[in-house]
User: What shape does this take?
Amino acid sequence: MIAERVLVVLCLTAVGCGLAPLAIAAGDQAPPSTTEKMIRDTKEAVESTKQYTIQQKDSFQKTVQAELAEMQTKITELQKKTSAASVEARKDMQKALQDLERKKDEARKQLDEVSHSTSSAWSTLKDNVNAAVADLKKSYKDTVSKLP
Assistant: This one.
């Protein structure tokens, strides 16, 4: 759908800029080679854009997966520290750990949505994932700051 829109816009721009002459009469048409070249070039541009978007999306997913793996390691370390805490502190820490796990799961769920998203929708989802990961990291720092 986006590719079609880009193709139409580029064709209309080419006509408006005088790159492709407008047909005035039925016999007055642009040479097929010029039109075909424009269409081929437009399709190549659309394909290049699509490939670039896919590469960006893949790179983003790998980066966030690494961040989530790092956060899981930190959460596991906190769980070990919790077992050594007093009974009262352990209750508070377990509640905080549950909150961290919930936020980590939410960030992972949103990351999964990115992998199934269209090229046009992924940038919005990217912002949501970044916000979820930032919230997880903030919660982790808050939890660590409350350790006895």
